[in-house]
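Action item from last week, closing it out:
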Amino acid sequence: MLPSRKKFRFDVPPTDRQIWAIGMVTVQWSALEMWTRSFVHALNGQDAEAIKRFDETLVSKQRYRQFRDTVLQKVKPAYQHALLAIIDRITGLQQERDRIVHGAWADTGPETPISVFHFGKPRKPFDWRLNFGQIVDVALKIERLSCELVDYAMKHLPKPTPAQFSFADALQYILNKPEPRP
């Protein structure tokens, strides 16, 4: 047991390694949220009202619905599919992240893995037995989604790539914009 754990009155069930992995899930999700925010801001450009609405929305499910709506409204149809698929994978993974971060942890004995559970309302009850590797797998899935968002933006940078650029620069090409008049 790490000495720092002795500062707490309650001995929580996850092992030191599992606590590290839970932290990685949290840190990776924070990074994914940062990339998501960067995308939504870049796609909305000068639409201060849409940016403010997104920034003031606290529920992840609603934020990703806004991200999806922004893509459908502002991105050329030919470029929507790949980005919408990433958003779908994020929303699909969110439940795993939420269970790890918001569930209660219990140790049911030496023969079974520690489980994360929730038996109260308003959420649907669940009981999920996780070991260190399974928690790390969730953190790695989250990181891969962050990388997919960054790769998507990088793929659309103008060539040659400028020394300094922003997501807004990278995503200009895929935006629905009125064609300039001759």
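Closing note: The mean pLDDT is 85.
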